Recover the amino acids of this structure.
């Protein structure tokens, strides 16, 4: 191999962004085995590893970081060249609403690719919970919203995202109590999004149905706030699987916790979004995030 295949470079970027081969494969719509084989072949051709492979996550090596910098520039140039030939006059502004858990995990790669393809389109991202974005869509204050489906909010189906219980590894659950398995405590301490959250309602209903005593030890609209409680070993949190960092445990029935229903992610559009920049971004989101 004396050339760098752009498709393979896109796989390298996806794995680096996702922090794992499984999630990286989903981003580029390939099987994990096919993606791993392609990256292994590239590593063999280069004569050096690109990733440090851990039990729960992967991180780029020093050589991997160097290649990533070139890969991002090459892919951006490809997208820019394509856009200049196919959509040279597309410009304008798009306001998109997205809650923290999807903004951190699902949207970055999509928005980066869209910006490279449509450099004249200005994107404004509004980070709010799904229930807070619903009225903004209806009032035409945002053009698009990538949200959890809920009563009274219509949208085009994107995917079902599994929910899990996020917890700290037992070995680092608490500096004061090393080895503590907080998910076995009763009442179970949980960290939740605010009232109106579908994830919150799903979790409370599942615990009540399983007759598991619980207490809300933390409530916040911020994903980072929930992470801080989990990482401190003070609670577990019901979250979309895509939003859980690799260093946290993902728990379920084998750990004595109730299974959680999947979240239905949809793309909602306001009445004023019927214009090319919104159409192209909506198309990009649907094509990139559908499983």
């Amino acid at each position: 191999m004396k050339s760098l295949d752009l498709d393979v470079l896109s796989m390298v970027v996806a794995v680096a962004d996702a922090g794992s081969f499984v999630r990286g494969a989903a981003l580029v719509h390939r099987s994990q085995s096919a993606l791993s084989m392609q990256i292994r072949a590239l590593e063999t051709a280069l004569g050096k590893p690109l990733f440090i492979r851990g039990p729960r996550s992967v991180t780029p090596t020093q050589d991997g970081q160097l290649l990533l910098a070139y890969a991002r520039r090459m892919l951006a140039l490809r997208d820019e060249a394509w856009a200049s030939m196919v959509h040279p006059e597309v410009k304008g502004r798009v306001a998109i609403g997205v809650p923290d858990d999807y903004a951190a995990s699902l949207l970055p790669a999509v928005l980066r690719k869209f910006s490279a393809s449509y450099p004249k389109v200005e994107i404004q991202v509004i980070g709010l919970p799904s229930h807070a974005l619903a009225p903004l869509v209806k009032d035409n204050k945002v053009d698009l919203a990538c949200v959890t489906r809920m009563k009274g909010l219509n949208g085009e189906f994107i995917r079902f995202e599994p929910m899990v219980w996020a917890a700290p590894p037992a070995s680092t659950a608490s500096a004061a109590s090393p080895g503590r398995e907080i998910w076995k405590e009763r009442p179970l301490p949980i960290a939740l999004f605010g009232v109106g959250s579908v994830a919150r309602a799903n979790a409370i209903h599942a615990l009540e149905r399983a007759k598991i005593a619980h207490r809300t030890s933390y409530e916040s609209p911020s994903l980072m706030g929930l992470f801080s409680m989990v990482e401190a070993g003070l609670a577990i949190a019901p979250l979309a699987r895509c939003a859980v960092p690799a260093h946290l445990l993902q728990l379920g029935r084998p750990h004595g916790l109730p299974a959680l229903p999947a979240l239905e992610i949809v793309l909602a559009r306001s009445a004023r979004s019927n214009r090319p920049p919104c159409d192209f971004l909506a198309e990009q989101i649907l094509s990139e995030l559908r499983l």
Residues 62-86 form the longest helix (25 residues).
